[in-house]
Amino acid sequence: MPGYELIGEEEACAVKDVFTYGGVLTRYGHDRKRRGIYRVEEFERAFSRRMGVRHALAVSSGSAALIVALRALGVGDGDEVITQSYTFVATLEAIAACGGVPVVTEIDATLTMDPDDLAARITDRTKAIVPVHTMGIGARMDAILRIAREHGIPVLEDAAQACGGSYHGELLGTIGNVGCFSFDFEKVITTGEGGMIVTDDGAIIARARACADHGREMQDPHTPADSDPHPSGGFNFRMSELSGAVGLAQLPKMDTVIRRQREIKRQIQEGLSDTPGLTFREVPDPTGDAGNTAVFFLESREAAAAFARCWRERGHATQNLPDSLAWDYAAEWSHILGGYPRYRGRKISTLWPQSRAILERGIAIPLQVTMTPDAIDRLIAAARACAGTANLRARPAREARSSASDPEAHRGFRGRAGAARCRRPLRRGARPRGQGRRSSAGRRSYTGRQPQP
Ligand SMILES: Cc1ncc(COP(=O)(O)O)c(C=O)c1O
Questions:
Q1: Residue 169 pLDDT more than 50?
Q2: Ligand 1, atom 7: nearest CA belongs to which residue?
Q3: Which residue range is the domain that position 369 belongs to?
Q4: Residues 176 and 302 placed together within one structural domain of the fold
């Protein structure tokens, strides 16, 4: 939960500021009362600068971002949208919410979209392709974009789990036609709940903006909603000013989060590199890995299950793999897919065998940016022990303090906000430190379902 781990005085003061300067909590209108404070707008500007894109639209969640982006690409009733079998359930929910038909590819050893299977599933009804950059790592975007361009189909990158990661020098989310991010509580940066859509395409962002605000189309944040003709439909997916303020305070911390995650992951991979029976996830561009999760494979499903039991007994957490596939694997979602004629009568649990064979051997370990060297060493030692010793479960859980619950683990890092003293109010237009440049650097969202020891 990297963004959350670094929440401090800056976020508390940013929120307090909103109340100090008028207390207007909605992003649009009320110009006189709000005394020049438009935090959501500022967050959008800062985020688009940081990502190096022309347009950014902040919304109420990553799920909302996906729905809005799909609608902005014109996805409607009966349109096929291709995504991958391994993703958080929100990706498919969003396609379904737009009336689209989810067409699901296998994943490969990268745990992202298998481009060969993508090519095989394109039809003349395919309206969009949605690769998902899972657990900080970019999908094989070269191949995916080549296939998409050959067929003239737009690409929407679901970068909810990979904010700050990159692929061959381009930031994830900015490579296809449109990208979506989540700022929920467990992501690289967090606004509690929130999301962002980014694109260089003015027409896409105009449609997205309207869709996120009941169809309001005048694009002028200062026009009262009742003066807008809003001829098209939409939703209330607006981000609140409080979330915008928190986002502005979190964004400058993103580079620190990514740098730290990468370093911790490097140390862990190094520490586990010669562990018998353990192989690492394939990464299309290792330099772009946002570093939020350490993923490796055991030799069999049984070995992975035994590792996971040992790991839990030692008080450590996993993240999705192998224990929460119900949330992250399409073969578990007959409640969504069973309603479509193309899936009716089919045994959904058996549809993506290549993916299942990979996922069932996988172990994913969430990394915390505030881990101390000792906590990292303990994690490596526990992983080596769990990988190598079948009878570990019989051992007393002496080391059952996870890095998350270990009071020593975070020593030396800044703690919570406490009673924040807000000395320097963040006024309109003030650019938070560290923003305004495009990073050459280039994360799974922690969906809250991993056992928290
Ligand atoms: C791949 C993916 N897409 C979309 C979402 C939805 O984001 P949110 O929780 O902000 O609605 C998530 C959240 O975990 C995700 O992991």
A1: yes
A2: 62
A3: 258-394
A4: no
pLDDT in tens, 41-71: 999 999 999 999 999 999 999 999 999 999 9
CATH number at residue 302: 3.90.1150.10
> Is there a single domain that holds both residue 307 and residue 200?
no
Mean pLDDT of 346-364: 95
**Candidate from 161, 190, 450 with most ligand 1 atoms within 8 A of CB, to mutate:** 161
Residues 277 and 195 in one domain: no
Does some domain include residue 336?
Answer: yes
Share of the chain above pLDDT 70, in %: 83
Please give the average per-residue pLDDT across 303-328, as a whole number. 87
Q: Is 61 in the pocket of ligand 1 (CB under 6 A)?
A: yes
Look at residue 9 and tell me if it is in a domain: yes
CA of 63 to the centre of ligand 1 (A): 6
Lowest mean pLDDT among 4-13, 314-323, 373-382, 403-412: 403-412
Q: How many domains are there within the chain? A: 2
Q: For residue 134, what is the domain's CATH number?
A: 3.40.640.10
Task: Look at residue 418 and give its three-state secondary structure.
Answer: coil
- Pair of tokens at residue 442: 């280039």
175 and 230 in one domain? yes
Neighbour count for residue 273 (Cβ, 10 Å): 9
Contact assessment for residue 247 and residue 271, using Cβ atoms and an 8 Å cutoff: no
> How many CA atoms are closer than 13 Å to the CA of 59, on its beta-carbon side?
32
Evaluate: CB of 184 within 6 angstroms of ligand 1.
Answer: yes
> Is residue 303 packed enough to be buried (19+ CB in 10 Å), middle (13-18) or exposed (0-12)?
middle
Residue 453 lies in a domain: no
